[in-house]
Amino acid sequence: MVDMLDKWNTYILRQHVEKQEREGENALVPKTRSSVSPSCFCFDKVRRVILRRDIALKIKDLNGKLSAIDEQRKMYEFQTIFAAMYCILFGIVAAVGIISIQFANNSSLRNIHVLGLSLFLGISISQYFVSTTSPNGVGPVKILK
Q: How many domains does one find in the chain?
């Protein structure tokens, strides 16, 4: 897709240069304006959309793999692996969020609050699982003394 856009942009620029060369030779020829606005040559937004689509397809593929593991979980009792796979999935979602931060207003108090809260909860929830694991490795459990 990006290659086609680059070829299209190159073709239009080449046509524009050839037109300017012809106008230089024929100074008496009336000048015309192109109906194509220069804003259509900005492909940054298109690249962002393509990037987000690729990320969404990867998450969809990962979701299918997680569904297959979920179906086999009951047969093999994969509770630990199942929880780890969900942690990986949420890690990918967090990575996509971090990628999107560069396009956000980082001076906004709301955005800073959401980012700080998500980082704090990510660290504190994992610490909760570490601190409430029973001696035989099963968790989270409340240990009675």
A: 1
- The CA distance from 10 to 137, in Å, is 62
Element (H, E) at 12: helix 2-25
Q: For residue 30, is it within any domain?
A: yes
Distance of alpha carbon 70 from alpha carbon 79, whole angstroms: 9
Boundaries of domain holding 17? 1-42
- Residue 19, pLDDT above cutoff 60: yes
Residue 143 lies in a domain: no
- The crossing angle, in degrees rounded to 10, of helices 44-76 and 79-101 is 170
pLDDT in tens, 32-51: 555 555 555 567 777 888 88
From the centroid of its chain, how far is CA 74? Answer: 32
With respect to residue 1, please indicate whether it lies within any of the assigned structural domains.
yes
Overall pTM surpassing 0.90 (yes/no): no
Q: How far apart are CA 31 and CA 18, in angstroms?
A: 14
pLDDT in tens, 78-101: 666 767 777 788 778 877 777 777
Q: Is residue 29, in this structure, part of any structural domain at all?
A: yes
CB of 81 closer than 8 Å to CB of 65: no
